[in-house]
């Protein structure tokens, strides 16, 4: 009898446990543990077979996502997936697949949190600079014309590439006189001196537009708008996409047998963030991703170095604990079909800013339960500190690289190092001599006849040794 009771207990425990276990499938997208292991092994296999591309970069394409910090890359990746009706987190951006990734320290010579003018001077001219200054070294002071004397001027990869007979092009959806493209060709202590309207009369400095025209710079520029181009989410057929402009640029530049340097800037990611409108910033990030994919498709990894990075980050957060696949522009859910409440008993969005225009000074925080944060592309995300314009963030940004010498991006680097790798890989500027650049790393290939000659000489030596 005791055995019978014992057996019944065991059976009831087994059935209870087994029934419960059957009730729980895999969560999320249903990936099994074997799926995760398989994915990791595929990734491991790619890493094990990774070899550096030791070659000269005939062409260099730099993709600059203005303000594209790590949180922007992640949120944009989720948006890309959700636009394809997927949960999004597992989605892959074109540059996620680049074999070499590093970090870039973005601070300026005189500033903890950077601006786009001094950072562009760093990654295009190879020296750190003061906030707000373009194409000048750390002796120049912002908004001070007399400090920007001739000997503070620094040259850029545009000058270095042109000197070696290469072509140079710029694709941007900002004004061509805006901070990032301007660092290729201008030397000015104030980024806002794009035209002469902000320059005091009789000041000895020339504005950025004047320098572009007067200096007769041999650069391919394609202009489609008087001012900044439209945000991707607002773009009509009247304007080409960043990917279409990139394609056009590569088709023209690749006619030069000596190669080219191309700067492609996704400049409006930054503007969307300053306005604290994540829909604008992140749809532009997805457009930027398409432009990178177009460059990858049109070039050869053996002769074209592609570097994708940002100038600086933003105070932009992906916050709370939303369920996987929760709409990226939506409210943080409570995983039970409702929304999580903050300490003020109000809902909140996943995407928030540390500071910016999304802080209401006169009223308490808006209850978002009836707000359209998903479809309203003009929705301004909430922020902790009230400012007219949201600010840049000071943390490191990522560098993604593929192609010749891309393995030189391998750890935590100062931002100005980027210009040096691009110059080293393409043998221009300080690194133009064969012995000083990527060319010196290429091992001479022993062809068939010389290999036979070496074998014959070795055989003779062995015979001589044997006879001694
Ligand atoms: Zn900015």
From TrEMBL:
SUPFAM superfamilies: Alkaline phosphatase-like. Binds 1 Mg(2+) ion. Binds 2 Zn(2+) ions. Zn(2+) binds at residues 66, 270, 274, 311-312, 392. It catalyses: phosphoethanolamine + H2O = ethanolamine + phosphate; pyridoxal 5'-phosphate + H2O = pyridoxal + phosphate; a phosphate monoester + H2O = an alcohol + phosphate; diphosphate + H2O = 2 phosphate + H(+). The keyword Zinc applies. It is a lipid-anchor; GPI-anchor. Its cofactor is Mg(2+); Zn(2+). It holds the Pfam family Alk_phosphatase. Keywords: Biomineralization, Magnesium, Metal-binding, Signal, Zinc. The active site is at residue 116. Homodimer. Belongs to the alkaline phosphatase family. This is Alkaline phosphatase, tissue-nonspecific isozyme. It comes from Sinanodonta woodiana (Chinese pond mussel).
């Amino acid at each position: 009898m005791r055995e019978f009771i014992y057996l019944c207990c065991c059976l009831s425990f087994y059935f209870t446990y087994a029934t419960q276990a059957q009730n729980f499938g895999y969560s999320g997208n249903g990936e099994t543990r074997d799926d995760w292991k398989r994915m990791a092994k595929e990734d491991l296999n790619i890493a094990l077979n990774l070899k550096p591309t030791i070659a000269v970069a005939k062409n260099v394409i730099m993709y600059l996502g203005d303000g594209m910090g790590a949180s922007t890359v992640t949120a944009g990746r989720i948006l890309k997936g959700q636009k394809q009706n997927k949960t999004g987190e597992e989605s892959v951006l074109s540059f996620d697949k680049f074999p070499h990734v590093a970090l870039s320290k973005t601070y300026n010579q005189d500033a903890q949190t950077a601006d786009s003018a001094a950072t562009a001077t760093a990654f295009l001219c190879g020296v750190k600079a003061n906030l707000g200054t373009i194409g000048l070294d750390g002796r120049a002071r912002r908004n001070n014309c007399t400090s920007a004397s001739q000997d503070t001027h620094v040259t850029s990869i545009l000058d270095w590439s042109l000197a070696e007979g290469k072509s140079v092009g710029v694709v941007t959806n900002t004004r061509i006189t805006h901070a990032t493209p301007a660092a290729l060709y201008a030397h000015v202590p104030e980024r806002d001196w794009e035209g002469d309207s902000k320059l005091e009369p009789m000041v000895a400095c020339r504005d950025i537009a004047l320098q572009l025209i007067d200096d007769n710079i041999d650069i391919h520029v394609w202009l489609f708008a008087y001012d900044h181009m439209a945000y991707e989410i607002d773009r009509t057929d009247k304007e080409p996409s960043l990917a279409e402009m990139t394609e056009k640029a590569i088709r023209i530049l690749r006619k030069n047998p000596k190669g080219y340097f191309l700067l492609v800037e996704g400049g409006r990611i930054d503007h969307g963030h300053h306005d604290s409108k994540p829909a604008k910033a992140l749809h532009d990030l997805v457009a930027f991703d398409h432009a990178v994919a177009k460059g990858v498709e049109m070039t050869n990894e053996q002769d074209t170095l592609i570097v994708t990075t940002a100038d600086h980050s933003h105070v932009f957060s992906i916050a709370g604990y939303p369920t996987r696949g929760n709409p990226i522009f939506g409210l943080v859910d409570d995983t039970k079909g409702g929304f999580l409440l903050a300490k003020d008993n109000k809902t909140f969005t996943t995407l928030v800013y540390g500071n910016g225009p999304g802080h209401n000074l006169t009223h308490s925080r808006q209850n978002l339960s009836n707000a359209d944060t998903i479809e309203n592309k003009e929705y301004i995300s909430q922020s902790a500190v009230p400012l007219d314009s949201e600010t840049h963030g000071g943390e490191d940004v990522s560098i993604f690289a593929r192609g010749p010498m891309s393995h030189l991006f391998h750890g935590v680097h100062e931002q100005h190092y980027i210009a040096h790798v691009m110059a080293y890989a393409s043998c221009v500027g300080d690194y133009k001599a064969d012995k000083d650049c990527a060319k010196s790393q290429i091992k001479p290939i022993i062809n068939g006849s010389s290999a036979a000659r070496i074998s014959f000489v070795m055989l003779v030596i062995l015979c001589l040794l044997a006879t001694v």
